[in-house]
Amino acid sequence: MHILIIGAAGMVGRKLAQRLAQDGTLDGKLVAKATLHDVVMPSAPIGASFESVLLASDFSLPGEAAKLLAGRPDVIFHLAAIVSGEAEQNFDLGYRINLTGTMELFAAIRAIGDGYHPRVVFTSSIAVYGAPFPEVIGDEFFTTPLTSYGTQKAIGELLLSDYSRKGFFDGIAIRLPTICVRPGKPNKAASGFFSNIIREPLAGEDAILPVSESVRHWHTSPRSAVGFLMHAASLDLNLVGPRRALAMPGLSVTVGEQIEALRKVAGDRVVARIRRLPDLAIIKIVDGWATRLDAKRATELGFTTETSFEEIIRVHIDDELDGKIA
Amino acid sequence: MHILIIGAAGMVGRKLAQRLAQDGTLDGKLVAKATLHDVVMPSAPIGASFESVLLASDFSLPGEAAKLLAGRPDVIFHLAAIVSGEAEQNFDLGYRINLTGTMELFAAIRAIGDGYHPRVVFTSSIAVYGAPFPEVIGDEFFTTPLTSYGTQKAIGELLLSDYSRKGFFDGIAIRLPTICVRPGKPNKAASGFFSNIIREPLAGEDAILPVSESVRHWHTSPRSAVGFLMHAASLDLNLVGPRRALAMPGLSVTVGEQIEALRKVAGDRVVARIRRLPDLAIIKIVDGWATRLDAKRATELGFTTETSFEEIIRVHIDDELDGKIA
What we know:
The structure is a homodimer of 326-residue chains.
Chain A: E1 2-6, H1 11-23, E2 25-26, E3 29-30, E4 33-38, E5 51-56, H2 64-68, E6 75-78, H3 84-89, H4 91-112, E7 119-125, H5 148-165, E8 170-176, E9 178-179, H6 192-202, E10 207-209, E11 216-220, H7 222-234, E12 245-247, E13 251-254, H8 255-266, H9 268-271, E14 274-276, H10 280-287, H11 296-300, H12 309-320
């Protein structure tokens, strides 16, 4: 089995490649080769028994997407994106990567023809929803994004469903919750603080909280996100039918509940490292985001996530901190 | 006031231009100029007191959309589309006109900058919905199109909302019901028979019914469709908010009810001209279409339509047949 990851230098892409290296299989089949692509050169996963081909390019440019498909990968994970905050600031860049890039990729898959019919797993986002919301967002709630990023993801979902319906590939779009605790340095996502207020204090650093503690949001761990991708790549999509965009399960908590979970896991000393500094731009963006979903379809299809925010924090401590709190 | 109609040679475009010529005003302002564009040369409306500029081009080609905007129209009606049946048969053509064309137009408006902020009225369609449906489709039901045409319209709506939110223009997308009774010759729309079974018998011709009489669908007259466009161009969009795609009001009737209305208006002799000839391709497409909506938002915003199918038939007899039945 040959796997292509587009966006392989990103946090989720790296963890996915590492998981494939660890498992050695996907959907019970041996992974023989992984093509890892990003706009910057990705690194090969450690300890893989398969060959890793590393590529760097701008896949939104004409002809570039076709190069990624030269080895006719069986499974394509499309994780590449300009994140929400940056896509909002840079309209042209966001549309070029998040929309044109996706369109070029899908068109390039179709152009191969000759019976080529890969599985395509596309990471969408809860940013496809826009306020005002019902108490709980169900599987049939409409997509009225309030950011360009959310718009681009919603369009990607529509294209993926149409290309799948026409038989050009077998696609599934998964709407990821906000990923928490995001390891490493902050990126330009407006949602960064949800992770910063946990990760930095656990590492002995101060963190800034730019919104009120009453802000409620929808989370999953990086480990669960990789689990969603693996499951989406393995699932019988006949069970999914023509509606190929699925909201993933998550955990709905307020910032206050996040902080209390941190207190339970790591104590007052760690919590004291969170500093309040309201940021009106962040407050305005976050105000339009989804707070609670009922991911009924995905749950029935076997997608699973954490059941408490303490569990999400412990996943971070296990996976990123070797079990140690500063 | 300068008005641009893209798709001005189509049935709705022609009727809209004629209505503007008749009224002489839009939203209480004098129409000074109309730019009428289509892929084939449109004709000027009869009896207009304003100047009509007639243009033919493929607006999806680079640079063509900008030419349509040279006179900086105050209101842009974007009606151009490859219809559902043809977009389904010709994937590339449908995407090029219905998606690339729309993207080129929106980008060209944005590129003018300099405070240019026209009203953009985009005709979307109930084809953005895909079965299975609830008993009644509400304003917050999601868009899961089952045709490429519906996909392209849903994407156009998303782009229009995002461009409007970013302040590049002031857009509104109106989801038209199937237009019935469509005058003239059949086009390639899969929905053509809904009109054929009324129009042809009234003109003394036989018509083919390719589906069962139990098929339920959502209709409005050409006169109401033009009314929607005029209202959409005049409406204060602050009342609409960021969710710029609105389902238009319509009338939900079965084919059997259409036929009984025809019988009431025109008698058994006319109804006898309908011949049953099932077409599996049409049956399959129509099976995925919306049957009944609750267009609550649009109704509250003042959009109106007919209240019985007899009224729809009488509109056709008045507007197209000079009141005479063959």
